[in-house]
Write a structure and sequence with these properties.
This protein is mostly helical. It has helices spanning about 5-20, 25-55, 60-85, 90-110. It has one domain (about 5-110).
Length: about 120
């Protein structure tokens, strides 16, 4: 895994929360940046656990990444909005999750480098 790319999204999330707390963030940041960062942080964290504890050469299959996008999209854009007003269904969120999937697949989803003997 590219740890720089992982920590970049984690720091972007922290910075995003700080900016949102100041009420000076642009609307698109409030609406879509969290959605973009969700899957890279979620799957990136799971990848770190897998590679550290279970199997260093682990990486997610494309089908697993797609399934994560599908489940998150259904939960956050179809099910949760029907259960609580804290969630709002928005097609653009699904696109933001998809862009996060692409970021994860391109920059993060690599087996851990083998240590030199």
């Amino acid at each position: 895994m590219n740890k720089f790319a992982y920590w970049l999204v984690v720091l972007a999330f922290i910075f995003d929360k700080f900016i949102q707390s100041t009420n000076y963030s642009p609307k698109w940041v409030n609406s879509y940046l969290d959605d973009f960062l969700l899957i890279p942080i979620f799957l990136g964290s799971a990848l770190i656990v897998q590679q550290t504890i279970v199997f260093g050469q682990f990486s997610f299959k494309n089908s697993q990444i797609f399934a994560t996008w599908l489940v998150f999209s259904i939960l956050f854009e179809f099910i949760f909005p029907k259960l609580t007003s804290a969630y709002v269904a928005d097609f653009w969120d699904i696109l933001a999750y998809g862009l996060g999937v692409i970021y994860f697949a391109v920059f993060l989803n690599y087996p851990a480098k083998k240590a030199s003997s």
